[in-house]
Amino acid sequence: MSVLAHVFEAAGIATVVLSSIRPMCEKVSPPRALHCEFPLGRPLGVPNDPAFQTDVIRRALALLDAPEGPVLVDHPEVIVADDSPVTCAIPPRYDPTLPAAVDEARGLRKAFDRSHERRGLTAVGRSVDADGVPDVLAALHAIATGTPWLEAGIPGGNPVAACHDVRNYYEEAGLELVDGPTPGGRAMEDWFFGQTEAGRTMLAARAAMRDAGVKFPIWFYMVPGHR
Predict the structure, then answer these.
(1) I want to staple 102 with a disulfide (CB 3.0 to 4.6 A). Which of 4, 80, 98, 217 is the partner?
(2) pTM of the predicted model, to two decimals?
């Protein structure tokens, strides 16, 4: 973002960067930056806190009034990531004739709907809506058990987008079932890949595509690179 800020400024567009890694921002030196010592992936700070997030945005936009730059200002609050393991009860199996991940996703639908109703929005929709998540998991199960990915019928035909939809569906549903405070930045990711059938199925499908010689990066970005 800091590099792009220079490009936009050169084209006459004023920019403000929300910095997450201060040494990187110092090195690139964008025209204006508000450094936010928050967990990575949470550039506006506290989840579900509109007042805090609005404060971050206002502080960032106020940098446009600086008479000259580069400007690098620190947000006054520091948020330390809490990546304690998530305690999240997954509904029991309902239909043992289905692949475990498909049955699991159907069981989480009510929790997802509660999240959607409460928040009024969802990140699901790159490739499928909530109704299509079980179909994606059925296709991933088929890939993991030997079906070539082009024959598995991934809805939308884009495995990366489809996998992102599955993860968003699960994380939004999971947050409705969490016992305790809002989890840290990586905690829901760890829960998804470590405790759910969907996460295990996704990892297995990705490995199967890689081992079958599917062209990079078709399979790589189905899950975070460090996994």
Answers:
(1) 98
(2) 0.75
Per-residue pLDDT reduced to its tens digit, 72-127: 999 999 988 766 778 888 889 999 999 999 999 999 999 999 999 998 999 999 99
The secondary structure of the chain, three-state, reads CHHHHHHHHHCCCCCCEEECCHHHHHHHCCCEEEECCCCCCCCCCCCCCHHHHHHHHHHHHHHHHCCCCCEEEECCCCCCCCCCCCCECCCCCCCCCCCHHHHHHHHCHHHHHHHHHHHCCCCCCCCCCHHHHHHHHHHHHHHHCCCCHHHCCCCCCCHHHHHHHHHHHHHHHHHHHECCCCCCCCHHHHHHHHHCHHHHHHHHHHHHHHHCCCCCCCCHHHCCCCC
